[in-house]
Write the C-alpha cells for this entry.
Amino acid sequence: MRLALIGKRLVTPFRILDDAVVLVEGGRIEAIGDKSILSRYKVKAIDVSGHLIAPGFIDLHLHGGGGHDVMEGTLDALETIAETHARGGTTAFLATTLTAPMDEIQTALEAISKACVSEEIAGARILGAHLEGPYLNPKQAGAQNPEYLRIPDPKELENLLKKCPFLKRVTLAPELPGGLESGRLLRAHNVMASIGHSDATYQQVLEAVEAGFSHVTHLFSATSSVRRLKAYRFAGVVEATMLLDSLSTELIADGHHLPPSLIRLAIKTKGTGRVCAVTDAISAAGLGPGEYELGGLPIIVENEVPPDYEVHPPEGSCVAKLADRSAFAGSVALMNQVLQTLVNLVGLPLTEAIKMVTWTPAHILGISHERGSLAPNMRADIVVLDENLSVKMTMVEGRVVYQKP
Ligand SMILES: [Zn+2]
C-alpha cells in the first residue's frame, strides 16, 4: 500500500516546501508535491500535520548507544544501537570500532557485516563499518586505549578488507610508518580513508591527500594544529583541513565537544557541503548521567562545563569524559540533539543545519544518489520533527521504525 505523509513543512534539504506531501512506495519515495497529488493515487495517509518532514539523519561516526557498544560484536548489541539512534532520527549509520586487540576488532567487523545484510535488524540501517584505530598516533590518542595503539600494518589491513566487504571507512594517522601505503590500499579498494587521531604537519597532510585520504575525522578533536619549532611555525591537520578543498570533514556537534565559534569557523572556511555533523556517540548515549566504561577505560557522563565556556548546553545534554576529566570520551548525543546544537547554539538556518546531517554525510560517503535528500526514487528514509526538533517519527526504507508514544 502506498503511504502518504502529510506535513506542515518539508526540508529537502535544499529548500523548504509548505504543506507538502511525500508519497512512499516499495521502500522508496515515489513523489513529492502539494495536496493535489493525493487525488491521483490511492493512499494510506499518515497525518503529521503541524510537523516538519526531513530526510533521515546519517551518522558517519557512531560507536554505541542504549548501553551497548559496537565492540561487543553481536547482532543484539548492534540492534539496540540501531534502535536507540532511530529515536534520535538517525536512519543510517557507520558502526564504528574502537582501538582494541585485533581479534576483538575482527569479531566486531564480522558482526557488522552480518547486520548490514540482515533484514531482521530493527531501527536505523547499518551502512557498514568504520574502523577507528588501532593505527592512531599515541600523541593524539584522546579516549582510544593507548595500550592497543599500533603503527599501520598494510598487510593486516588488506586482510581485513578481504574479509569485510562492508568496511567502508578507516580512520588512521597517515604520518605513522605504513600510513601512506595504507591510504593507497584503501583508495584501491574504494574505502574512505580518513585522517584522524593524527599529529601530522601540513606537509604530511599533503602527502596523505596524494595517497588517497579524502576526509578528516572529528576536526578539532585529536587533530594537530599550529606548532612552533625553533623560530618556525608548522601548520597542522586543523589548518590543512580548512585550507584544502580536497578534504571533507566532520564535527562532533553535541554542544560540548566544540564551542559554536569553532563550528562556525569550520563552516565559514569549508561550507556546509564539505562539513558534516556526527555524534561520535558511545554506549552511554541515551542513558543519562553516571559512571560507565569505554574500551576498558573508566569514564564519567555529566553536564558540567567550565564557567567561562561560550555557551551553556541545554539541561539534560551530557557528555562523556575520561575519569580524570582530562579529555572527552565521546558523546552521548542522538542526532536530533546535534541538529538542535547547530540551530539553537550555532545559529545556522534550518536548511543548512539539516543538510549537515543528511545530504552532506551521504555525499561524503558516496551514497547521495540514494540517501540524504527527499526526492523521487530516493530511499524512503524520513524523519518527522516537531517545532523543538524533537523526533515524532522515524521511517527507514518505508518502514516506521520509531513513533513517539
Ligand atoms: Zn570515535
